[in-house]
Structure formats: C-alpha cells, structure tokens
C-alpha cells in the first residue's frame, strides 16, 4: 500500500519528482515511515516547516546520519532554509558533536551548495574576533544560561578545570553560538535537538531546557521539537529527552 494522500502530498512538497528506491524494495516500511513522519507527527506542535527541518537536520548531524542529512538538506533548501542557515546548522554542531563527526557533514553541505551553483565561501557570520571572543562569549552564555548559573559554573570549577569553562565561553559561545545567520532562540532549539539526539547528555539537556526558556522558547515549543525528532532518533532517546524536559520544565497539572 502507498502512503496516505496527506503524507504523500507533504512528502512530495519537500522531494518533488523524487522516487525512493526503498519504495520499491521495502514498500511496507516506507508506507509506515512516511505516514508517521510526514503526516501523523505533523498534527502535534507549533513548529513551522523551516524550523522543523532545521531541528531535524541538527539531530541528524548529532546522530551521524550523513546520507539522510544529505537528502533532507536538499529538501530544506527547497522549503526555504537559506544556504547561510544550512551552513550555520553545521557550524553549530561542532561544539556539541565535535569536528570529527561534523567534518563529513561539512563537505557534504559544500557539495550540495556547489551543485546548486551557490558560491562558496558564504558571507561571514562571525560576530567576534580573537581579541573579544571571551567578552562576546560571556555575553551570549549569560543570556542563554543566566548570570547566576554561569557565575556558579566558574566558581565551582576546580583550578585545574577552569580552562574548560573558558573554552566553553570563548569557543562554544563566542566562536559558535554568538554567530549571526540564525537568531538565538532558534539556535537554542538546535542545541536542544542535538543534545537529545546525541544521547547520554541529559544533564546538558536540562541545562538547555532552561536556556530555551531564558530566550523565549516555552515547554510547548520544546515538546514540538521532541515530537518532530521521534521518527529519526527513536523512542529511547526521545523518552530520555522528554524526562529531562519534564524535570526542568514540568507539565502544568490540569485543574
């Protein structure tokens, strides 16, 4: 059986004229997946198509899903995600997933943009320099995590570990999160998606639930992100992310 009409329409909007080889070799699985990922989960949450694709792409990098990323990145460009936004998603993955994992995604993204006749390098989105990256990083870090939380991290770090705190401020937030090209609330959604998808990062997930709340993303928005990731990361990581979300931002009890 083919996917239902609504799932097929949603799929075809992203992948016009694309015929999946899996539809021929594994039609039963494709029917279930397309109905779920391109219809059922879209009934829940408030993410617009562009943001949905952006958080899914961030998740795929964290999962190491290079082939799926390549396909979905092309769909994202078709759906209106800009080349700068696509490149910034990849850049932002470096402090969370590490360059060893991101390296192939960067080359794949460059190849995709080149195929679409987009000149590289793209315009710079850096907002810091080697001279002021710590100052810029601290500004962004405190906006996301809060002044008190950042001060506690520095105060509580043993002397031989404080360089790691400085790296997170200058490199993580100054070099990466503080860049332009994607607004800070969307960047925090990307961070949440990456941390949930990496697995084993529940303390950091809870920290960035708070960070999302600080920049204006509410619990409903984060639940929307989790919902859109389920088909791609599976239930164990999604449920771990849900537990971290519930602990950091408990659901409202119904009266």
SSE topology string: HHHHHHHHHHHHHH
Structural class: mainly alpha
Q: What does the radius of gyration come to?
A: 19 Å
Number of strands: 0
Helical residues, percent: over 70%
Distance between the termini: 44 Å
Largest sheet: none
Mean pLDDT: 94
How many helices does DSSP assign? 14
Which percent band covers the strand fraction? under 5%
Q: Specify the overall morphology.
A: globular
* Oligomer class: single chain
Low-confidence stretches: none
Question: What does this protein look like?
Answer:
- The chain has 14 helices and no strands.
- By secondary structure, it is mainly α.
- The chain has a domain of 51 residues.
- The longest helix has 17 residues.
- The mean pLDDT is 94.
- Pfam families: CMD.
- This is Carboxymuconolactone decarboxylase family protein.
SSE order and pairing:
Blueprint: H1 5-14, H2 21-25, H3 27-37, H4 49-63, H5 66-78, H6 83-97, H7 99-115, H8 133-145, H9 147-156, H10 162-177, H11 184-198, H12 202-214, H13 219-233, H14 235-248
Helix pairs in contact: 1-3, 4-5, 4-6, 4-11, 4-13, 5-7, 6-7, 6-10, 6-11, 8-9, 8-10, 11-12, 11-13, 12-14, 13-14
Identify the notable features of this structure and list them briefly.
255 residues; mainly alpha; 14 helices; 0% strand; AhpD-like; 4CMD/NDH-1_regulator; CMD-like; Carboxymuconolactone decarboxylase family protein
């Amino acid at each position: 059986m083919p996917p239902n009409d609504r799932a097929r329409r949603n799929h075809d909007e992203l992948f016009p004229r694309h015929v999946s080889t899996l539809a021929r070799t594994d039609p039963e699985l494709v029917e279930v997946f397309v109905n779920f990922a391109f219809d059922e989960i879209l009934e829940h949450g408030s993410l617009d198509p562009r943001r949905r694709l952006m958080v899914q792409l961030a998740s795929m990098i964290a999962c190491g899903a290079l082939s799926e990323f390549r396909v979905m990145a092309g769909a994202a460009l078709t759906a209106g995600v800009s080349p700068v936004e696509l490149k910034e998603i990849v850049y932002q993955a470096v402090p969370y997933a590490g360059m060893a994992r991101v390296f192939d995604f960067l080359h794949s993204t460059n190849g995709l943009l080149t195929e679409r006749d987009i000149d590289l390098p793209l315009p710079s989105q850096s907002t810091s320099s080697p001279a002021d990256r710590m100052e810029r990083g601290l500004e962004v870090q405190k906006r996301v995590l809060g002044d008190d939380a950042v001060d506690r991290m520095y105060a509580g770090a043993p002397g031989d570990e404080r360089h790691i705190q400085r790296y997170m401020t200058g490199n993580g937030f100054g070099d990466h999160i503080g860049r332009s090209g994607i607004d800070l609330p969307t960047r925090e959604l990307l961070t949440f998606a990456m941390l949930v998808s990496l697995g084993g990062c529940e303390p950091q997930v809870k920290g960035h639930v708070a960070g999302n709340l600080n920049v204006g993303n509410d619990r409903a928005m984060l639940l929307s992100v989790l919902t859109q990731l389920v088909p791609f990361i599976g239930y164990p990581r999604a449920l771990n992310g849900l537990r971290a979300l519930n602990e950091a931002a408990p659901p409202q009890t119904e009266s």
